[in-house]
Amino acid sequence: MPRTQHRCSGPVSRRGFLQAGTLGSLALSDLLRFRAQADTKLQPAEPDPAVILVWLPGGPPHTETYDLKPNAPSEYRGLFKPIPTVVPGLDLCEHLPLHAALADKFNIIRSVAHEFADHGGGHKRFLTGRLPATPTEFVNDAPMVGSIVTKLRPAQVSGIPSYVAGVDEGRAGVDTFSFGAAYLGQATTPLIVPGDPNSSKFKVDYLAMPDELQGRLADRGRMLAEFDKTRRFVEESSSMAARDQFNQKALELLTSSKTRTAFDLSQEDPRLRDRYGRHPWGQRAILARRLVEAGCTFVTMVMENPIPPGEPVPTGVIYNWDSHAVNGHIFDDARVRLPHYDQAITALVEDLTQRGLTRRVLLIVTGEFGRSPRLDYSNGRPGRDHWPRAMSMLVAGGGMQTGQVIGSTNGRGEHPHDRPLTPNDLWATMYRHMGIDPSHSFTDQIGRPMPILPFGEPIRELLPAQA
Question: Which candidate in 204, 213, 282, 296 could, as Cys together with 209 as Cys, close a disulfide (CB 3.0–4.6 Å)?
Fold first, then answer.
């Protein structure tokens, strides 16, 4: 993926539901009304279950992180050495020492594979659990898994959004990472929060109302009139009473102290924030924990650019995980990227554990595919290409037994050697955690029944002991 694609501001942003007293592209009161129509008959496996998906766009190199191949030929194995962890037999990259010390608190899956090598096709294939209609571009023809969870398991805490995604500034389009809801509609897309949570200027636009609007909150009638004045999707058949009901809920969300508190990182112990890392990835990770703790059902945090805004980019460092030689130097990039990643992910695992959230919250850390086992070179720099036929990921929480390695690849990291899995098996596991039946169907735009997952089985090693 060329660097220019990552800096493009093309997709229309979903930044903010309320700005200067007017609503954005979808009236917040209507979004709440549409979500209230969700099918919530299925019961979750755990009380108030939640998911944190840490998304690593571009494709993390499995042979530089979780699946090193020290005995492979030099053109495959790269420069980094494996180090032992607290789990006997589990070795990880030398640049992940915090992972090594905490390896008994998470699982590594090494044998997930699919067939879509383009970023767009890979995003759609992985994030929807379906074979995309087109192998390129990022617009979904099936709902992203977060939208399905939002449809069937909306947040049960008043004033808390169901689905939140944290991204870099300028990356807030719902189609930037194939986060679209397709036939489930806009009401199930995430509240996308762009920016660096570590910055003193960080704010959630729809919570950052101008002073003059704040002053009008006491005047309930005027506030509701603002909602009505900018409404775009009100159905003709809706009664005035129904409209008022959802306007009241919109007002509740906008003025909720719970929502403001969930996004307020200043309430965290500074030492814990230091543990996560005072950089965008670390502070997004701690924000994810705060959001699920407050009642969010599905939180996606995108860890794309490791360099805080305004800081110089070291030579060879790539914007995201797309480590082609033409984009940068894979090993120089990893030396900068992996310490940030190591700090943020292990802090999140540790924090969830210490707060007793590891049964209620399922953590998944992955990108859309792995990287080619054989190194390629451009301008004298090493890199790796897209490789969906093998990838590694980290999972934790969800009541699962931890300290496991699930599956393996062959001696060069080219393809699964044992326990071959697909993204659908991962999502079947996630849906089981959420109490969602993956055979449940929705109707698409032309009236066809579309099951949540067309195939896939829960990964048995990740199921709680009593399952």
Answer: 213
Within 174-312, strands assigned E span 191-194, 298-302
C-alpha 114/C-alpha 193 separation (Å) is: 30
**What pTM did the predictor assign?**
0.85
Q: How far apart are CA 264 and CA 376, in angstroms?
A: 44
Query: Residues 93-144: pLDDT tens digits?
Result: 999 999 999 999 999 999 999 999 999 999 999 999 999 999 999 999 999 9
Burial of 171-201, coded b for 16+ CB within 10 Å and e otherwise, reads bbbbbbbbbbbbbbbbbbbbbbbbbbbbeee
Both tokens assigned to 161: 């959004």
Using CB atoms within 10 A of its CB, is residue 137 exposed (0-12), middle (13-18) or buried (19+)?
A: middle
- Strand segments, DSSP code E, in 188-331 are 191-194, 298-302
Selection from 170, 100, 183, 102 nearest residue 141 by Cα:
183
The answer to whether residues 143 and 441 touch, using CB atoms and an 8 Å cutoff, is no
Within a 10 A sphere around the Cβ of 402, how many other Cβ atoms?
19
Dist CA 64 CA 73 (whole Å) = 15
